[in-house]
Design goal:
The chain has 191 residues and is mainly α. The chain has a single domain, classed as Lysozyme (Orthogonal Bundle), CATH 1.10.530. The radius of gyration is 17 Å and the shape is globular. The relative contact order is 0.12.
């Protein structure tokens, strides 16, 4: 239900932006205290249940719905639209936690080894660690670029330096296609 609410809110915001009713530089809304406490209680309950039912290491792969729930919780905790996080994961790895790119990016949110290390990730193939770090990075980029999704996504893909040097989405075909794809996935989820 919360996903639906965020999807509707995101869609309304996008429509308002298209008609010039709000500036595109507004940062995403922060979760309020109630949302944070509710999320924290849900995470604690889920962690307790997982600890009680924890299978032997490596005996069970995490399901896509479980990974989506981790992504949704990380998004809410960081004040990032859950649909945007879902779109990034779908574009980056199609929910394959073992994905490795030709350039060496790893896991669901395709973290480069240096970035993963900087963000304190011990196991980039751990869905929770990868998502928590990736969403935190996405949040910092959204903050840096004043909530501008295109710039934040371009920086996620090509690096902040490329975005800063070009004053926006750099003229790299891969990055332009990436930004377009993530936004299309996000908007499709918001409909």
């Amino acid at each position: 239900m919360i996903d639906d609410m965020y999807a509707v809110m995101g869609r309304i915001t996008e429509i308002k932006k298209r008609f010039g009713l709000i500036k595109r530089t507004h940062a995403p809304a922060q979760p309020d205290e109630f949302q944070r406490r509710t999320l924290q209680a849900a995470e604690e309950k889920k962690a307790k249940a997982a600890a009680e039912e924890k299978p032997a290491a490596g005996s069970r792969a995490m399901s896509v719905p479980e990974m989506r729930e981790i992504a949704r919780m990380a998004a809410v905790r960081n004040g990032v639209p859950p649909g945007l996080v879902d779109a990034v994961i779908r574009a980056e790895s199609s929910y394959n936690p073992k994905a490795v790119s030709a350039k060496g990016a790893k896991g669901l949110m395709q973290l480069m080894p240096e970035t993963a290390g900087t963000l304190g990730v011990n196991d980039p193939f751990s869905p929770k660690e990868n998502i928590d770090a990736g969403v935190g990075l996405l949040k910092s980029l959204l903050d840096k670029y004043g909530g501008d999704y295109k710039k934040a996504l371009a920086a996620y893909n090509a690096g902040e330096g490329a975005v800063d040097r070009n004053g926006g989405v750099p003229p790299y075909d891969e990055t332009r296609e990436y930004v377009k794809r993530v936004i299309e996935l996000y908007l499709r989820n918001s409909e």
